[in-house]
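Quick one: co-fold with S-adenosylmethionine.
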Amino acid sequence: MTNAGKSATFWENHYSRLDDQWGTRPNAVLKDLVTALTTAPGTALDLGCGHGGDAIWLATHGWDVTAVDVAQTALDRVAAGARATGVSDRVHPARHDLAESFPEGQFDLVSAAYFHTPVDIPRALVLHRAAQAVAPGGLLIVVEHASVAPWSWQAGQDVRFPTPAESLAALHLGDGWQTERCHAPQRTATGPQGQIATVTDNVLALRRTP
Ligand SMILES: C[S@@+](CC[C@H](N)C(=O)[O-])C[C@H]1O[C@@H](n2cnc3c(N)ncnc32)[C@H](O)[C@@H]1O
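Sure, here it is.
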């Protein structure tokens, strides 16, 4: 099986077993960044959207969102959630294996929130491509795990996470970007069985200069 097939298989299996309400709430860090760093809604690209908590929240705040995932089961739930919320005209689910293909166009906001996978994919290249999809004046948001939650597939493993500065450097942005956020805040997270833990995120918010 190719890695493309592996991503679809792994994540379809994941979502087919998952409570369809898990991940339907927006990530607090995404909400805070969008509220603080944007002045008006525009077009948004949500990479690895999962059950669409972020995509639907953005749409309810006026954004026109392309919501991308490799798992059709997740995308079907995003579409259903958008219909139920009355924003299906502003949420466009799109299936891509981002290691293989990427949506066309440029967007005022490109977000990759916890775009992690146990499948071996060229993640840094995907995030570099994500930066290229940001329109002038637009924002790139990357939020990633910087600690292992007890319910993570990495629990018990000795994982070394990059620092925020290392994650920023790995994007190879070049000139024409302003760093709005590059830090590693802690937050309280809730696991699938309701477990509570303090975790750390790497948070990058980068504005493409007009
Ligand atoms: C850890 S989940 C995060 C989901 C969501 N962004 C959130 O914050 O809850 C990672 C997501 O990336 C998606 N994904 C993983 N590999 C992918 C790939 N190669 N192409 C597109 N999506 C992928 C998964 O299906 C999953 O929905």
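If it helps, The helical segments are 3-17, 28-37, 53-60, 72-85, 123-132, 164-170.
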